[in-house]
Write a structure and sequence with these properties.
Chain lengths: 238, 246
């Protein structure tokens, strides 16, 4: 059988080193010897001897998740082998975090991360109840984190002189040192006329950067579908 | 008028040789002189003299199978002379050359078109049972010719020389000689019974010698455009509804 499908870019090669790497722009490969944490349902393929477990995240994070509906449903993948993660054919990027770095990322955009990173769910300051559930995951520590963007992202530097305003549906994450608040940019008159579709923006002040994806789409649906096995399915499947 | 839209790579690619080729990564161009099988609704444009004839699933046996299983490819036969453009929701298109002796299993939702010299049949996927959301039946293609498939995003091709596992919604096609099975990677514990699942409860296992093509997305691709052919909605109608609805 012959096809362009089998060109070198698409073929999975044996792993050269342990850890996270990009298989290509849409797919993350993790050569595993130990443990990796990933968003539930993000696995598309694996080989080797691996076990998948729901990652318990502590009472605090559990409560926050239950109350807010936001955050990051996690699974721990343990064992030896290779595993491929992807999410909705979105573009994947690997972030290297060094000690002292802190990154605030929307939970839906996280694919997987080294267990050496620690993370916590935080409410975005100043966001209040508006802005479509603004709870982000703050990552710090040392290690690598893989995120997805629906389309090619824009990274905008934020400085003291030039605050940046972003759509809350399109923002992927920002350096955690930034201050945030909600901006209402529309006059009452404009709202009465039907609104421009841009009711609230997230304003970012300080020194750092913000990552924005060129899509306001809702990408959560795909991940939820696959976890709908539920009680009966899981028990029967056992 | 001037625009980057009219760049050379967007203009129609002319070629003297009949057959399938990629117009770009998302669109298939068929220089037709004779006939070709295509998924119903996949045509986006054509030039020339062509007839489109709905085939259903291709025969009585396959019709019953496809109604019972929700799998299969809703097909049309396109015959005539001219240029035919096929696409499915901007998914990436790949052409596979099938040679005599080759057999390839493809998820019905991901088949875009194939030469009429290629035969296909609906086969039961071993070991998967009732649990797979992706459908426990797949299409096996044999013969000689070209098959065009769609993937959402750039795929990964895994060569199977050790046991390999894939999410059933992400596995697109594999060599038909592979042994498939069903594997639980999820740890069964108290948490699982309480409904906490990693979302990886059912994975397909592959063993033997061959390859597996995996797409970086776990969505159902292609079922919207075709209005059938094994999407989630189709299967949920159940056996009787499927037969009556046909």
């Amino acid at each position: 059988m012959r096809s362009d499908l089998f060109k070198a870019d698409n073929m999975a090669q044996p792993p050269t080193q342990v850890g996270m790497s990009l298989q290509h722009s849409k797919c993350v490969k993790y050569a595993l010897n130990g443990e990796v944490l990933a968003r539930q349902g993000a696995m598309v393929a694996y080989r080797g001897n691996l076990a998948f477990e729901v990652k318990s995240q502590g009472v605090g994070n559990f409560l926050k998740r239950a109350v807010t509906g936001e955050g990051l449903p996690l699974m721990a993948v343990r064992g030896q082998g290779e595993v491929w993660f992807a999410s909705g054919a979105h573009d994947c990027f690997i972030m290297d975090l060094e000690p002292g770095d802190a990154l605030s990322i929307n939970g839906r955009n996280v694919v997987c991360f080294d267990p050496s990173l620690s993370y916590e769910i935080q409410m975005v300051r100043g966001a209040g109840m508006f802005g479509g559930g603004l709870f982000n995951s703050i990552f710090n520590g040392q290690g690598r984190l893989a995120i997805t963007c629906d389309g090619q992202p824009i990274v905008i530097p934020v400085s003291q002189q030039a605050p940046v305003f972003v759509d809350t549906d399109a923002v992927v994450g920002w350096s955690a040192g930034l201050q945030t608040s909600i901006q209402k940019s529309q006059s009452l008159k404009s709202i009465l006329r039907g609104g421009s579709g841009e009711l609230f923006q997230l304003a970012l002040y300080g020194q750092g950067f913000v990552i924005v994806q060129p899509s306001e789409g809702h990408q959560v649906a795909a991940a939820q579908q696959s976890s709908s096995g539920g009680l009966l399915g899981s028990v029967l499947g056992g | 008028m001037r625009s980057a839209l009219f760049a050379a790579e967007n203009m129609e690619k002319e070629s003297a040789q009949p057959g399938m080729r990629l117009q770009n990564s998302k669109m298939l161009k068929v220089e037709l002189n004779g006939e070709i099988m295509a998924r119903t609704g996949a045509m986006v444009a054509y030039q020339g003299q062509m007839q489109f004839q709905a085939l259903g699933s291709g025969g009585m046996g396959k019709w019953i199978k496809s109604k019972l299983t929700g799998e299969g490819v809703p097909l049309m036969k396109v015959s005539g002379v001219g240029d035919l453009f096929l696409a499915d929701r901007a998914a990436d298109v790949h052409i596979i050359d099938v040679e005599p002796g080759d057999a390839i299993t493809i998820n019905g939702k991901n088949v875009l078109a194939f030469d009429s010299t290629v035969q296909y049949d609906i086969k039961f996927v071993q070991g998967l049972g009732m649990f797979s959301a992706a459908g426990m039946f797949n299409c096996v293609f044999t013969g000689q010719g070209k098959v065009a498939i769609t993937t959402k995003g750039t795929p990964v091709v895994l060569s199977v020389n050790q046991p390999t596992y894939a999410d059933p919604q992400a596995a697109i096609c594999w060599s038909a000689s592979l042994q498939t099975g069903y594997h639980r990677a999820d740890q069964l514990g108290l948490g699982t019974i309480l409904g906490r699942s990693t979302g990886e409860a059912f994975t397909m296992s592959f063993s033997g010698q061959g390859f597996v093509v995996v797409q970086p997305s776990e969505e159902f691709a292609g079922s919207l455009v075709s209005g059938g052919g094994g999407g989630a909605q189709q299967q949920s109608q159940g056996l009787l509804g499927g037969l009556l609805g046909g």
